[in-house]
Design goal:
single chain; mainly alpha; two-stranded antiparallel sheet; 7 helices
Length: 280
């Protein structure tokens, strides 16, 4: 019999939401990256101009922001998957504890009683199946009287056998049957949970790889943005220096005494055209 494989979408609650969110961010990144290529092609041959580095810086800044959002979203998805693994691990531990408890109780009842419990369960299943068929027959439009009578007789025989078995074992057969059924359900739940845990672990691995890649891409675009910002500063500094060099120099004014030397002898200070004064 083929083993049923459980997908991470079924094993991890909210997985679809995180995948859709990351997919939307990836779509936005493709648009932003295409815009960066358009900017680079527009300034082909003049990459070091002020307009070129400015436009490229804006495009890279938008990509960096989107990439940062992707890192944060993937990190949340990874945490969600890790929580699912922990949850299934805890549930499996509880299921195993209940199975051990039931197995110990069956062991105390003994092998003979356990066999009686298996018989009890077969009779109980006969009653359940027959009563279900009776309900279906009552809903049909044709005459099913004879078939219903046979089923009623089958139910009565099974119930009578259960009553005898219950009396002969002083109720132990019924208890053993209950424990056996519960063990069957617990084992099925444990198997399902184990498959979900395995799928969740795959989800953790997948999101871990995605997070590492997203961080790598973010580091690359951040480094490229820093390089472009440095280039912008370099171009800006060079332009300012060129403007200063091309600006005409202002002639320096010469400060001379406003009075002849003989008149200055009668004053305590000299007056200068520039507004300054010199004490004698």
């Amino acid at each position: 019999m083929a083993t049923r494989t459980i997908s991470t979408k079924l094993a991890i609650e909210g997985e679809d939401t995180y995948r859709a969110s990351v997919s939307n961010i990836n779509a936005s990144l493709k648009v932003l990256q295409s815009q960066l290529k358009e900017v680079e092609s527009r300034f082909l041959g003049q990459e070091n101009s002020m307009d070129a580095v400015s436009a490229k810086g804006k495009a890279l800044a938008a990509i960096e922001e989107a990439q940062r959002q992707k890192v944060e979203e993937v990190a949340r998805a990874l945490e969600n998957a890790e929580n699912a693994v922990r949850k299934y691990g805890q549930e499996n531990g509880e299921l195993k504890a209940r199975l051990e408890k039931n197995s110990a109780a069956l062991g105390e009842l003994g092998e003979k009683t356990e066999k009686s419990g298996e018989r009890w369960n077969r009779y109980a299943k006969t009653v359940s199946d027959s009563e279900e068929k009776l309900l279906q027959l009552k809903k049909t439009s044709g005459d099913t009287t004879e078939e219903q009578e046979k089923l009623h007789a089958k139910v009565d025989r099974a119930k009578a056998a259960m009553e005898r078995l219950d009396k002969s074992t002083n109720g132990a057969a019924k208890e053993a049957g209950r424990l056996l059924l519960e063990n069957k359900e617990l084992n099925a739940e444990l198997a399902s949970n184990s498959q979900k845990a395995a799928a969740a672990e795959k989800g953790v691995s997948s999101w871990t790889i995605a997070l590492n890649r997203a961080k790598t891409d973010l580091n690359k675009v951040t480094a490229e943005l820093k390089k472009t910002q440095d280039a912008y500063e370099g171009v800006s500094t060079a332009l300012n220096k060129t403007e200063q060099q091309q600006r005409p120099k202002q002639p320096q004014r010469q400060c001379r005494p406003t009075l002849p030397l003989w008149q200055s002898l009668c004053r305590t200070s000299w007056e200068w055209p520039c507004g300054a004064s010199m004490r004698r």
